[in-house]
Amino acid sequence: MDASEMAIVRMVKSAVVLSVSKAKSKVKWPRHKYSLQHSQNLTCDLCVKIFTMSNPSKAVYAVPFGSELSEPVAFNGTKWVLLAAGGNTWSNYRHQSNVYHAYQIIKSHGIPDTNIVVMHYDDLANNKANPTPGIVINVPNGPDVYKGVPKDYTGADVNPLNFLAVLRGDPILARNHKKVIKSGPNDHIYVYFIDHGAPDLIAFPSQYLYGEELNAQFKQMYQDKKYAKLVINIEACNSGM
């Protein structure tokens, strides 16, 4: 690692979660200039590339605990991901397209489909309003981010009950051949949710998930030793709080 990379490491050493909202926007740091490579609230815990220097062959990875930057800790668990778009219809295009974009980034960093659960209504690609049938983008003139996205939960299956059941690794869903997070005490879980929200709730296509329900789920998962680390990013008005 050269001196310029070390400078970036010092800048991000205390980061817990780094969220960015615009792809390719510019951020000025003292003595250096970097461009944002990826957007949409992706957690550093999965070693997603956040900043790149002018030389694209060099990249810096941010992790949520500063000590891990200088003294890597052996990881003997499994990484799990839940990506959920609570919105549907063409007017809420960005909700699902952001989830598709997140999937492509996470998949490119080596997380297998068996460990990624995707919830999306799936009414964009073949929507009559879509000028490019079968293709979904998340930036103007951007690449297709829909290709290859799993259809784990679509349509009416995108609801609060299934969202919570996936998180806790519900055995009934698993027996019905539905994908769930089968995590244990050494595992890392990343959750990304996007849709509309209000104080104490986030929205799904036809139902709400309330803060008390989500908090109770996380407390139970903690008691059941379902994770070593869990990060959730909520992109919604009031963030459900």
From TrEMBL:
Q: Which organism is it from?
A: Oppiella nova
**One cellular component GO annotation, for this chain's record?**
vacuole
GO biological process: one example? vacuolar protein processing
Q: Please indicate which superkingdom the organism of origin belongs to.
A: Eukaryota
Name a GO molecular-function annotation: cysteine-type endopeptidase activity
The name on file for this protein is Legumain
Q: Which protein family is named in the record?
A: Belongs to the peptidase C13 family.
Which Pfam families did the record assign? Peptidase_C13 (PF01650)
Q: Which InterPro entries match?
A: Peptidase_C13
Q: Which residues form the signal peptide?
A: none
Q: Which PANTHER family does this UniProt record tie to the protein? A: HEMOGLOBINASE FAMILY MEMBER, LEGUMAIN-RELATED
